[in-house]
Write a structure and sequence with these properties.
This protein has 435 residues and is mainly α. It has 17 helices and six strands. The protein has helices at residues 5-40, 78-92, 100-115, 119-129, 143-155, 167-186, 213-228, 232-243, 247-251, 286-293, 314-327, 334-347, 352-359, 364-370, 374-389, 396-405, 409-425, and strands spanning 47-54, 60-66, 69-75, 258-259, 264-267, 277-280. It is elongated. The chain starts with a helix and ends in a 10-residue tail after the last helix.
């Protein structure tokens, strides 16, 4: 009887699949029997499942642990591994007696160890955890309960401000709890994520209230005046405007971050991997920065009081509002000064890529969405079109006018006094004049 090779291959695959399914049932039955015996004995087995992980030989591995004993199971396909994992969690996941609070504490510790989240983020997550039913068993929360709990966050009104929670606040809550349950599923603490079908309500506002150009000039004038008198937070606010720094980047700066005799500011790390950069300090701020780092140790903070144990956000928020009140301009937050930097840089002709790199962004899309005003982006493009259509080389007078416009009133006064002094020292003879 003749048979084609294709038929033989198909029969072999079907036989292999039947054998694999039989092995799955045997492994599942063995584990199930063990878990059932321990559950009847009154024990609370610590049962966890990881995976599936793909191996080099194109097989998939599940890692199972119970009471510190770990075993690995190998499968020929991803579907087989996923099916066994789902069956194990369905049969034996109920044996877990872990509460939401216990899993949250473990997840938070994992975030600190593996992801390196900062203390401010830890504090924020702890506040979010207080809105969860910490005593409830993790696997018992249903989708309807999750939706109701999220709606409670949407409807929550602050007893202090008498205002409802912002869209960004309850969006953050939903994102955190989704990540928590997703992590718990990977650890085998529950079978499903009850938050997966809960959709965020409302739309987050992009951008912050920014000062206008004349307002920014008044703010800068007041901040510069106070910084020259030794007001360190005022100098930090000026760095936010001139260099586009985040308030955390100002707070974390130490003496060794000031380089090249006060001309360079290093940002070795930050919120994202693109935050690492080297920035040039404006020349008129250089003496002020040098006066701050004087007699400082290399790892000593520059723009934040060292006796404050917790680097809270309110420090620069309060100081910048104080400067706004002194300047007679609308009160803004530190993040607004960063957006003001992007807007003014684009208005001044800087390229989109240059502004994005100065802010520590991977692309201009983030800068455009959250920082630069739409009008500044449009004006920047229009200016470049105008410059391309009227491409004439700038004269020496235009260049000199541009330089003079960048100087402050104090710098202009100093320049004028130096020019007057130099002219008075010049001895011009009659031979220098044309006849």
């Amino acid at each position: 009887m003749n048979r084609s090779i294709d038929t033989l291959v198909k029969q072999a695959k079907r036989t292999g699949k039947r054998v694999a399914q039989q092995l799955q049932r045997e492994k599942t039955a063995t584990l199930g029997k063990l878990c059932a015996e321990r559950e009847l004995a009154g024990e609370a087995p610590s049962f966890r499942v990881w995976g599936p992980y793909r191996e080099r030989d194109c097989r998939y591995r599940l890692k199972i642990a119970e009471h510190g004993v770990e075993k690995s199971l190998m499968f020929q396909s991803l579907d087989e591994a996923e099916a066994v994992k789902a069956d194990l969690l369905q049969r034996h996941g109920a044996a877990q007696r872990r509460t939401v609070g216990e899993v949250f504490d473990e997840w938070l510790a994992w975030c600190v160890d593996s992801r390196g989240i900062k203390p401010a983020t830890v504090y924020c997550y702890v506040q979010i955890s207080r809105r969860l039913p910490l005593a409830m068993q993790l696997g018992r929360m249903t989708e309807s309960e999750a939706r109701k709990l999220y709606q409670t966050q949407v409807d929550w009104v602050s007893p202090r401000t008498k205002r409802p929670a912002s869209v960004a606040t309850h969006h953050l809550f939903l994102r955190v709890v989704k990540n928590l349950w997703r992590w718990a599923i990977e650890r085998g603490y529950c079978n499903a994520n009850p938050w997966s079908k809960t959709t965020p309500v409302g739309r987050r506002s992009a951008g912050r209230l920014q000062l206008r150009i004349d307002e920014a000039r008044r703010f800068e004038k007041v901040a510069l005046k106070l910084a020259r008198r030794g007001d360190v937070p005022a100098l930090g606010a000026l760095l936010m405007i001139y260099l586009g720094l985040r308030q955390g980047e100002v707070v974390d700066r130490v003496a060794r971050d000031i380089d090249d005799n006060g001309r360079v500011l290093w940002i070795p790390s930050g919120k994202t991997k693109n935050a690492r950069r080297r920035l040039k300090i404006p020349e008129h701020l250089r003496p002020l920065v040098l006066s701050v780092i004087k007699d400082k140790e290399p790892d000593e903070l520059l723009f934040y009081p060292s006796h404050h144990l917790y680097r809270g956000r309110k420090y620069y928020v309060n100081h910048i509002k104080r400067l706004c009140r002194l300047a007679g301009v609308p009160e803004v937050v530190p993040h607004s000064l960063r957006g003001l930097h992007a807007t003014l840089a684009l208005e001044g002709g800087a390229t989109a890529d240059a502004v994005a790199k100065a802010l520590g962004h991977s692309s201009f899309a983030i800068t455009e969405q959250h920082y630069a005003s739409p009008s500044s982006i449009a004006n920047n493009r229009a200016s470049r079109v105008t410059a391309a259509l009227n491409a004439e080389p700038p004269t020496a007078t235009d260049t000199l006018d541009g330089i003079l416009k960048t100087l402050s009133d104090d710098d202009l006064s100093e320049l004028l006094s130096r020019l007057t002094e130099r002219l008075s020292n010049c001895h011009i003879s009659d031979d220098n004049y044309p006849t």
